[in-house]
Amino acid sequence: MPEIPPTNPINPAAAWPSGLVIRARTSADAEGIAAVQHLPGFRAGTLRLPYPKAGDVRKFIETEAPGSVSLVALMDNTIVGDIGLNRFTGRRAHAASIGMGVHDDYQRRGIGRALLGEIVAIADGWLNIARLELTVFIDNQAAIRLYESFGFRVEGTLRDYAYRAGGYVDAHTMARLRAEQAEKSA
């Protein structure tokens, strides 16, 4: 992986962990992302299957929809997290969905907060996204607290949403409305 120059947060008020680099995801990141996706803790919070293939990850990266934003987080030139924003079209062009995850060994270090902060700053300040949506398993309380700290609210619970490790698990659908955040800060 090539040497990555230091980056600065889009939001100047954001505080990143020392040594963290966040940058655009590239197809050269496929092997590192596949390695992170294979970790049991990372995988448990997603819809991913075990044993991801770097080629499938590369193909996904290379065929992302126009208008999507995909970032990776690195520490010591190792991919330790990623996040993606996919904007909807047509009558839902004001909205986007996000998905993210952090390497098992780097959780609770502020990396997820930094990634989410970058995507929210881009959505608010650069893309004029009024509504951000996500889905999170109900047993992922750390992620739910993180999302709530950015203004996401549970809008509903999806029962038996996914099959994981031999059983069905429920998920919350959450959303953040930019107008509500502006009202709170006024």
Automatic annotation (TrEMBL):
Q: Does the keyword Protease apply?
A: no
What the entry lists under Gene3D superfamilies is as follows: 3.40.630.30
SUPFAM superfamilies referenced in this protein's UniProt entry, alphabetically: Acyl-CoA N-acyltransferases (Nat)
Q: Which UniProt keywords apply?
A: Acyltransferase, Transferase
Instruction: Please name the PROSITE patterns in this protein's record.
Output: GNAT
The protein's superkingdom reads: Bacteria
Looking at the keywords, is Repeat present?
no
Q: What is its EC number?
A: 2.3.1.-
> Which Pfam families does the record match to this protein?
Acetyltransf_1
Q: What's the protein called, per UniProt? A: GNAT family N-acetyltransferase
Q: Which species does the entry assign this protein to?
A: Ciceribacter thiooxidans
